[in-house]
Design goal:
The protein is of the alpha+beta class. The chain contains four helices and four strands; from the N terminus they run βββαβααα. The longest helix has 13 residues, at about 80-90.
Amino acid sequence: MIQSVSEIKVGLDFGHGIQPVGRLARRNTIIYFEYDSGFIDKGIEISPYRLPIQRGVIELPQRPFEGLAGVFSDSLPDGWGRLLFDRMMRTQGILPSDISSLDRLAHVGL
């Protein structure tokens, strides 16, 4: 049985270990992103349009990526992978409609 996720730490691996980028957090049905201050100092833009480099919390829109910015949504499985994940959840008595996009992102690669 999966646990609902309320926060995910985001990192990038440039070949020298994982560098903290920030964190995604969900409150009610809204997902927020906040950059790690050390990553802001590097000046790397992971998504200039939706996630401009700035301090503070950024509220992510519900559309078009189910509450995630595209840069994070791209890490989710496509249609076939989503179908398999949903089937696995149903075998555990969990309806796919009860799984948030943050839950899905947290379980990629497990």
